[in-house]
Design goal:
74 residues, 4-stranded antiparallel beta sheet, 4 strands
């Protein structure tokens, strides 16, 4: 199992909806709206690192997402 943290920047006015949509993505275990340099932090558990590409495509497909930074637990 691979643990992933995704730090997300979103457009103003879309943060809450984006967070809700992100929580519905397969593999995401939790997503929170946060203060600071990022707008949303999402946590995921994936069967393998190869599943990361699919996960990130799904996150980037959410309307309002501008940028992500992905941290994979080692």
């Amino acid at each position: 199992m691979v643990s992933v943290v995704v730090l997300i920047k979103a457009e103003a006015g879309t943060i809450w909806d984006a967070c809700k949509q992100i929580t519905e993505i397969d593999g995401i275990t939790r997503a929170d709206v946060v203060t600071g340099p990022y707008d949303v932090i999402a946590y995921a558990e994936l069967p393998s690192v190869e599943d990361l590409r699919r996960l990130m495509k799904s996150v980037h497909d959410v309307e309002g997402i501008n940028r992500t930074e992905t941290c994979v637990s080692i």
